[in-house]
Design brief:
The protein is of the alpha/beta class. It has helices spanning about 5-10, 30-45, 60-65, 100-110, 135-145, 170-175, 205-210, 240-255, 270-280; strands at about 20-25, 50-55, 70-75, 90, 130, 155-160, 180-185, 215-220, 225-230, 235, 260-265, 285-290.
């Protein structure tokens, strides 16, 4: 039996008759350029095309992977860590995390040495292209999640982008929805990602909200897969608070699917209590914990 191909491991059921393709995005770290070239060279050497989309939030890379009908997506980022660190996250064709089984198959292909027997040559190697509208695609997708009957006009928002991947996307989305946006942490230089800014240092956000009399403050981490917020008083609104606010509002409106709120294992019992007590008069949601 011939060894499994790299492409077939990524996509057991081909998405089309053309060549397989993988999206590569990144945050703003200096090392991202080096790793982007190294990773793309390896992928191209396996006969798979590469689609470069540049700096984009991790959720944006997941979305663009699905939007471009790619076979997989890669984001080069170390999230909230200092600029000297870096890492790699993989997504399936549907934008979700790569299955453990697929990861194990890829590792076995590499560590067993079988990969050397299936490496293509000449016209069979892949080609790389840059996708110019990846940011625009993600911005439109993010805006589509905001109700059309509503607007942010009249609101003043402070956004701290952590000098990271959201330094263009988040301010643009908020402005196009009508908000007055004051942005900090939007001048990445490769070394200042997460440095004294963003969700790792929210105290700066609190001060700015009070100073500019803003309605809300938003702080991302380096790859913008997390967010902290504060209210008009500069008070912290963390992930549990955001989930509770959204769940109770949706429950009251009857729009919470299956009356269920799913959290991570990092959420504490306070979220459970905050949901169940006020919701008792309505219809208490099912509680589920996602690992």
């Amino acid at each position: 039996m011939p060894p499994p191909t790299f492409s077939r491991i990524l996509t057991p059921k081909p998405r089309g008759h053309g060549r397989h393709k993988i999206v590569i995005g990144k945050d703003t770290r200096l090392s991202g350029y080096m790793l982007e070239n190294a990773i793309s060279s390896g992928i191209l050497s396996m006969g798979v095309d590469v689609l470069f989309i540049g700096p984009l939030p991790t959720p944006g890379v997941a979305y663009v992977t699905r939007s471009l009908r790619a076979d997989a997506g890669i984001v080069i980022t170390a999230s909230h860590n200092p600029y000297a660190d870096n890492g790699i996250k993989f997504f399936r064709a549907d934008g979700y995390k790569l299955d453990d089984k697929i990861e194990a198959s890829i590792e076995n292909l590499v560590f067993s040495g079988e990969i050397e027997n299936i490496r293509p040559t000449a016209e069979e190697i892949g080609k790389a292209v840059r996708i110019a509208d990846a940011l625009g695609r993600y911005i439109e997708f993010a805006k589509a999640g905001f109700p059309r009957r509503m607007t942010l006009e009249g609101m003043r928002v402070i956004v701290d982008c952590a000098n990271g991947a959201a330094y263009k996307a988040t301010p643009c989305v908020l402005r196009e929805l009508g908000a007055e946006v004051i942005v900090v942490g939007d001048t990445p230089n490769g070394k200042n990602i997460n440095k004294d800014c963003g969700s790792m240092h929210p105290q700066h956000l609190y001060q700015l909200v009070r100073e500019f009399r803003a309605d809300v403050g938003i702080a991302h981490d380096g790859d913008a897969d997390r967010v902290l917020m504060c209210d008009e008083t500069g008070g912290l609104v963390d992930g549990d608070d955001i989930m509770a606010i959204a769940a109770l509002e949706m429950l009251a409106q009857g729009t919470l699917p299956n009356e269920t709120l799913v959290s991570t294992v990092m959420s504490n019992a306070g979220l459970d209590a905050a949901i169940k007590r006020p919701a008792a008069k309505l219809s208490a949601p099912t509680w589920a914990t996602k690992t």
